[in-house]
Predict the structure.
Amino acid sequence: MSKLNKWMTWGVSAVFAAAVPLVGLAADDAVSQEVSMAEAHAKMAASADSLEMTHTHLHHVINCLVGEDGEGFDANEANPCHGMGDGALPDSADNTDVHAQLQTAASDARAALNDDDKASAQETAHQIAQALGQAAASIAD
């Protein structure tokens, strides 16, 4: 192998070695963005003027958490996390603690969608927002 080929091989290897940690960072960044957006919509759900708007924002929370291919994704509702990643749950699969927190938040949001009492649904949305804030803090650590 010529010196040029050795340098090229070494250079290409160095580029790939440097890029591997960036893949993890990109996934963490996607999860962080998705969780932050879901948290924002949980807060909107908690303070909405009507039960209908509370439910609308809870749909947005679920869509951000599960992603477009996920269970419970509602294509009839907006997906404020479109283009950020594959959904916070799929994107957090390698972080078991955060993933578990997000699964609980998604489950709670689904339950709150069936709640016909505005105050109760909004209290659940408030709890979801707190849980998502804690998940976001875990991702940042």
User: Anything to note?
Assistant: The chain has one domain: 28-140. DSSP finds five helices and no strands in the chain.
